[in-house]
Design brief:
The protein is an alpha/beta fold. The chain has 9 helices and 6 strands. The chain is 43% helix and 11% strand. α1 (18-31) crosses α4 (66-84). The structure holds 6-O-phosphono-beta-D-glucopyranose (BG6) and magnesium ion (MG).
Length: 218
């Protein structure tokens, strides 16, 4: 019997893909004749592709037919994929692999809980796919974070109770989802933004082995 399940968000937790999402949305915005800033991109973290486009079009005051909307969704993703294709191991955020290795050594369950429909190819590209027992992504959920669905499916997949699950997240919606699911929430990023989390770290380099040990045993 495993002690705990550790559920990782992907974008912004395992890899810094937020910058590629940003570049692809910015390109589309510029094509449509308006600017899209990095500050505005903060709103897009943890948010589904469809919802991101809705927000983007609102920002640009643009109305679109369903057909046009769908075409822009495809266009943005095709552009995003040109960045993903070039990804390799070097894009894994600092100390993430060390934490995954440690959890494996301690025989803990590991899952992915991401809103992205590109999660599987990204994990493959950076060589982390073998670490994950369960992958719950944008293709397997019907409700977006802060709905807890994504994490609850992962827990069920791993046959673990929600209270025995620990979630690593860089988005406000993701932390809220973990809290609603009654899981331990760990914010990775700006503590002020992620103040609803049970614990906060700037990144995994700040996380001591002692802390992970404590999570496994508590
Ligand atoms: C989330 C990102 O992980 O995935 C969001 O934080 C992104 O910014 C969402 O919009 C959907 O990603 P994708 O790859 O399906 O377009
Ligand atoms: Mg994220």
């Amino acid at each position: 019997m495993k002690d705990k399940a550790f559920i990782f968000d992907l974008d912004g937790v395992i890899v810094d893909t937020a910058k590629y999402h940003y570049l692809a949305w910015k390109k589309l915005a510029n094509e449509l004749g308006f600017e899209f800033t990095e500050e505005q991109n903060e709103m897009f973290k943890g948010v589904s592709r469809k919802r991101c486009l809705e927000i983007l079009l609102d920002l640009g005051n643009i109305e679109a037919s369903q057909e046009q909307f769908d075409r822009w969704m495809v266009e943005k993703n095709e552009d995003y994929l040109t960045y993903i294709e070039k990804m390799d191991e070097s894009e894994i955020l600092p100390k993430v692999k060390k934490v995954l290795k440690y959890l494996k050594k301690k025989d803990q369950s590991i899952a992915l809980g991401s809103a992205s429909k590109n999660a599987q190819p990204i994990l493959e590209k950076v060589g982390l796919l073998p670490y994950f027992e369960s992958i719950v992504d944008g293709n397997s959920v019907t409700k977006a974070k802060p709905d807890p669905e994504v994490f609850l499916i992962a827990a069920k997949d791993l046959k673990m109770k929600p209270e025995d699950c620990i979630v690593f997240e860089d988005s406000v919606a993701g932390i809220q989802a973990a809290n609603i699911a009654n899981m331990v929430s760990i914010g990775i990023g700006d503590e002020k933004v992620l103040h609803e989390a049970d614990y906060n770290f700037k990144d995994f380099t700040e996380m001591k082995k002692k802390f992970i040990k404590k999570l496994i045993k508590e």
